[in-house]
User: What shape does this take?
Amino acid sequence: MRKFTALYITLSTIWANLGAQKSVIWGIDAQIRNFGFDFGILKTSHLKGEDFSQTIGLKLGNLVDPKEIELVSQMLPGAQPFKLNKVNYAWAIKPFYAHNFIVTHRKSRLDVGFKIVTNISLPVVYHWPVYIWYYNGIPPFDGYNDVKYDPKLHQPNLIGGTTAFTKGIKNGSFTPGLGVSSAIQFDWGSYRSLSNSVSLGMAIDAFVQKIPILYTQETNRNIFPSLFINFAFGFGDIH
Assistant: This one.
């Protein structure tokens, strides 16, 4: 019984020491890129004295094409903006893992830390059709009808805008992919409990097939390279 008690105390002490040496930061972030934006939650772990940390998290964001053009019909009073030839919305969910190389450590609240961040993600895009308000000028049924947007059938000057963002969301499909990124990161904040960071970097997401955002298939793509800026806020036990 004494041996068991001694072993229990020893293991408890080791576990407590490991816990004391490990810092965990929970955070939220927002990222702006030339193909859209993301919001995410994340958890960063770091062993005291190590020159690297690890981050896992989940992001949700939209996917757009730089070729999208927003128009407003000048023929229809009260017309709302719509995007010419955009036939599908596309949103992605991204579980990710990041390895952070710590170049300079923060040792006080006045210090600014510097990291090099590498990231791998498994994005899955869900895309669904865009519906529009299309004007029918034939009496006695003149007025707007909500229809699935087809640039081959619908004239831009008779489009009064898009309908609810969620209309047609049940008729979408998934496309998986793989993403990688790298960035430089600066962090600051309360030495013990709060952390803020800003990151600048580049990323590339590749999918198994083209994402049909636009009407013309030739203009759609399955590879999305991007530059981004990321802002994050975290709290926890920071060494």
